[in-house]
Amino acid sequence: MKTLDRNSNRPAESSEKKVYTAVLLGSMAWCIAIFLPPLLMRTGGARPAFLIRLFFAPICHQSADRSFMIGGVPLAVCARCTGIYLGFLAGVLAIPLIRKNRFIQRAWPQRNYRTMLLAGAALMGMEFLLTHSVLPPLGLWRALSGIWFGVVMAVLTLISLFELQGRQHLTKRNQNG
To answer: Shortest CA distance to 60 belongs to which of 143, 154, 141, 117?
Structure first.
């Protein structure tokens, strides 16, 4: 395992990889769980499908008319939440590209990610207003408005976790040396 370089303020890369891997695996499992209820219902797994939907119930209204369906069975969350979680997974997958690309780092410092997050929230608000007045209430609109929000949330979450981890390593280093 790599240790903190004495001349560096960055934590060991192996620690960042552990954090990244944990978030990636967690978000993959979360997204898989969203798609399981319809698949389980097709194979006679009504009870596990019910338990998965019950797990997601506190965080999503799960209205069937606002959810994507597979074989006539709704996913575990609504279309907007599906977009947010798939967007989060996409953002996690994009982090290595963002961190290696110096152009992106210069063009979008962390404070701009917060602006992008607000833009994603505003996009969801606009979608809500438009689908209740002008646009047809399609799940696709809801999912698309959630994807942007999810991507930015993933980037902010991982960058914050990396920074927090770096501060913890610096504190330990200062206490030991």
So the answer is: 143
